[in-house]
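I'd like us to work through together how a protein chain folds, taking it slowly. We need material for that, and I hope you will provide a protein of your own picking. Go ahead whenever you are ready, and we will take it from there:
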Amino acid sequence: MTPDVLHLCAPALPPISRETIRLYMGQRTPDGETDALMEECLAMMRPTLAGRVLWARFSLRETADGLDLGFTTTRSADLRRHLAGCREAVLFAATLGMGPDRLILREGRLSPARALCCQAIGAERIEALCESFCGALSQKLGPTRPRYSPGYGDWPLAVQTDVFRALDCPRRLGLTLTESLLMSPTKSVTAIVGLENQENDT
């Protein structure tokens, strides 16, 4: 099912967390050589780090076949517990685009160390993009549950095909899915976010 309204936005990204990048690189404490490499890679990557998010709102409904998410039905016990009490949810796809992938591929041929650092920067930025979007979503629509992605717990990765169909990701976001269900560009995330029923909290 494709929703009547799809929203495309470019959330403002928070400042870069060098500590998080170090952790993704396996470097737990600051190191002069690593930090110099990080600054070099950040200078290369900054022009490519503009994220976009495509999202839509769906009603949730329990059925005899499981939980109807509006775009597919699931029997995932983990997801049903995670969304328990929610009547609606937001499905979203976020991506940094092809820029980081091109740089990582290029640096993989030139310098494995720079490629690793660029990978870590991309990972930090896509997480920051998702957190920024989810924070803005809570401000706009009220309290939300933490995001939950296909492939997590017992929600199968195969549901990605339903997610991509529902959001029309290839046409609207330039995000495609390989036969092995990997996303391209790689610095991308899909997830569902439950909307809390505020009237039930009073």
User: Anything to note?
Assistant: The two ends are 33 Å apart (CA to CA). The chain has seven helices and nine strands. Residues 7-197 form a domain with the NADH Oxidase fold (CATH 3.40.109.40). Helices lie at 18-24, 32-45, 77-82, 98-110, 112-141, 160-167, 169-173.
